[in-house]
Design a protein that fits this description.
Elements (H helix, E strand, L loop, with lengths): L5 E6 L3 H5 L8 E5 L9 H15 L5 E6 L7 H8 L6 E4 L5 H18 L7 E6 L2 H5 L1 H5 L5 E6 L1 H8 L11 H13 L3 E4 L8 H14 L3 E4 L5 H8 L3 H17 L7 E4 L2 E4 H27 L1
Parallel strand pairs: 1-2, 1-8, 2-3, 3-4, 4-5, 5-6, 6-7, 7-8
Antiparallel strand pairs: 9-10
């Protein structure tokens, strides 16, 4: 699974902010062409994003671009502008169903072939931020092999549902959980919604840990100050890693080697699902460490 602990958004029309991208150590930097860019600024934003695709990832971040959804009639122009070398993926805003994804997959392949890029190299994130999008989240996620992650978008979701977005987030319970389940069912990473009170770090950390219990493995961020806590909270803590190593070693030595289905480890039963979960934790740590090594080598 790709490492997507932090997905930081930068308005594509803000040249000053975009120029700072190479110094930002997020896992993913998303240059935005959608809601953070006024309609009159869209052409300018496309030009700025296109010019900064390669440089923006110098910190080791993967570079994505959030594109406008098909109903806006802006999607084609967005893609024509940004599908070039240096682009790792696109995020489709307000994805409503699998037809949106299939259309995007076709257009990406056409552009990859036309521009000499490996077919399938541009990945897809889906922003699930409407009632229709939530209902069709799983079908959308499996509509193209390019899709590697789903982001739950709480702000537009609450607007669509005609309710207020609150810090407590009780109005999000169903859609937040449903999107995470849909992502995992499709073999994708679940990325949690942006926490808009970015100065309230205590609330941010509490809310992020709540999302982790639902299966979220990363977060859409709106401020660089949220990167460090996101990385810390989405990285398995040392005690979990130590437990996982012990479980794997004990199960392989005492169960697999002897043909048993379960063993006792530190007073608790360990069976195959527990063993597999421990291996997943160790794999996650290996992928995070590999990403950090690559980042350090690139400096």
């Amino acid at each position: 699974m790709p490492v997507m602990r932090s997905v930081l958004y930068i308005p594509g029309n803000n040249e000053k902010m975009v120029s700072k991208a190479p110094t930002i150590e997020a896992d993913i930097i998303t240059l935005d062409l959608e809601d953070s860019v006024p309609p009159a600024e869209k052409p300018k934003a496309r030009e700025i994003v296109r010019a900064n695709l390669k440089a923006a990832g110098e910190s080791g971040a993967e570079i994505y671009v959030r594109i406008n959804n098909w109903e806006t009639l802006l999607t084609n122009d967005d893609l024509e502008a940004v599908v070039h070398e240096g682009l790792h993926g696109v995020c489709l805003a307000k994805c409503g169903g699998p037809d949106h994804v299939k259309r995007l997959d076709w257009k990406l392949e056409e552009l990859e072939q036309r521009r000499g890029l490996p077919v399938g190299s541009v990945k897809v994130q889906l922003l699930i931020e409407t009632a229709k999008g939530v209902i069709h989240a799983y079908e959308s996620a499996i509509a193209s092999p390019r899709v590697n992650s789903l982001i739950f978008g709480a702000v537009d979701y609450t607007k669509d549902m005609r309710v207020m977005l609150t810090t407590e987030g009780t109005e999000l319970h169903y859609a937040r959980a449903h999107t995470a389940v849909a992502a995992r069912a499709a073999g994708c990473v679940a990325i949690d919604y942006p926490f808009v009170a970015f100065k309230d770090m205590e609330a941010f950390e509490k809310n992020t840990l709540e999302g982790r219990t639902l299966g979220y493995e990363g977060r859409m961020l709106i401020h660089p100050s949220q990167i460090e806590p996101a990385h810390r909270l989405y990285t398995p803590p040392p005690e979990d890693v130590e437990w996982a190593k012990g479980v794997v070693e004990a199960f392989e030595k005492e169960a697999l080697a002897k043909g048993l289905a379960a063993i006792s480890y530190k007073g608790k039963m360990v069976d195959t699902p527990v063993y597999e979960n421990a291996k997943t934790i160790l794999q996650m740590v290996e992928e995070i460490e590999a990403k950090e090594r690559k980042r350090r080598q690139g400096k």
